[in-house]
Structure formats: C-alpha cells, structure tokens
Amino acid sequence: MSSGQDEVTPELAAKSHALTGGAKTEYAKIQAIGQYVQKIKYVAIEMDLAHGGGYKPHSAELVFRKQYGDCKDKANLMRALLKAAGIESYLVSIYYGDRSYVREEWPSPSQFNHMIIAVRVSKETNGQTVVEAPPLGRVMLFDPTSEITPLGDLPWREQGSC
C-alpha cells in the first residue's frame, strides 16, 4: 500500500542534503532527519478507512509541503528523506499500548494501530533499538511521531510491541 508514496522529489532531495550535509556518521545523518521529522506537526488523518486510508501513508512530498501528518505519514516522510540520503528503511506497523495484543494465529491489519520506521544500519551504528531482522539485516527502530524520544530509543509503550 505504501509503494510509491516515498518518491524523492527535488525538494525532498534538497531538504535531505541540507539536513545531512554536515553529518560525519551514518548515525548523525539518521538523527538529523529524525529530529526534523519529529518536529512535523502530528495530525490524525482517518479518511477513506474502507479503502486503506488508515494504513496507506500520504505521499512524502505532500506531507513535506503541508508540514503535518499522522504516524504513517511521518514515518513515510522520514523514509523518503533517508532514501535521498542513500539510507534504506522500512515502514513497520505495530500495536501501540498492549504488548500482548498482536496474535500470530490471527493475521489481520486491525491488530495494528501505529506505524514506525526501521532504518537499515551498519555495524558502526548502535542503539538500544538496533536489532537483527532477517531478511532485512541490522535495523534501528525509531518512532518519528514521538517528539521527545531520541534516536536509538522507543517510547516505553512501544517497547516489546510487534
């Protein structure tokens, strides 16, 4: 559902370069982009739910231009900015709040109510949320919706969520 929503426009590429131009490390690049996206205004957008509106992010370009979006929009904007910086990432659906809510034996999109991002990182980048995620490899989980949680950590209500 998110295919193409992370298209890198010239404006997004320029913003990514401006944010990461002085960064010396992979971590610093991810941090600069993450801090920028954390400042984008959070607005819950729940329209056209019957056709994926609750799961499909708006285009990164639209969120960048409007400077607001919900969790999936902010994660997708970060994904596009990272992509422009040459850093691979993935959108991750989780259930925010109850670590035992998601059931493997009951596959359903309704088990998930929040979206974060998994950023592929090298061995030089570390943090509490860096995990091995086959087949993706080494990723750092991050929630750009949280305005106060630093890169390398997750809000406590998300820790241990699926």
TL;DR?
The chain is α+β, with helices and mostly antiparallel strands and 162 residues long. It has one domain (10-142): C8orf32 fold (Roll), CATH 3.10.620.30. It has four helices and six strands, in the order H-H-E-H-E-H-E-E-E-E.
Can you tell me about this structure?
The chain is an alpha+beta fold and 162 residues long. It has a single domain, classed as C8orf32 fold, CATH 3.10.620.30. Helix content is 28%, strand content 17%. It is built from 4 helices and 6 strands, in the order H-H-E-H-E-H-E-E-E-E. The strands form 2 sheets. A 4-stranded antiparallel β-sheet has the order 3-4-6-5, covered by helices on one side. A two-stranded parallel ribbon has the order 1-2. Helix 2 runs antiparallel to helix 4 and helix 3 crosses helix 4. The mean pLDDT is 85.
Shape: globular
What is the CATH domain class? Alpha Beta
Examine the coordinates and then state which fold CATH places here, giving the name of the CATH topology. C8orf32 fold
The assigned CATH architecture is Roll
Tell me the series of helices and strands, N- to C-terminal.
HHEHEHEEEE
Mean pLDDT: 85
Q: How much strand?
A: 15-25%
Number of beta strands: 6
Fill in the keyword field for this structure:
alpha+beta, globular, C8orf32 fold, 6 strands, 162 residues, single chain, 4 helices, 4-stranded antiparallel β-sheet, two-stranded parallel ribbon
Topology, element by element:
Blueprint: H1 10-20, H2 26-38, E1 41-42, H3 60-66, E2 68-69, H4 71-84, E3 89-94, E4 114-120, E5 130-133, E6 137-142
Helix pairs in contact: 1-4, 2-4, 3-4
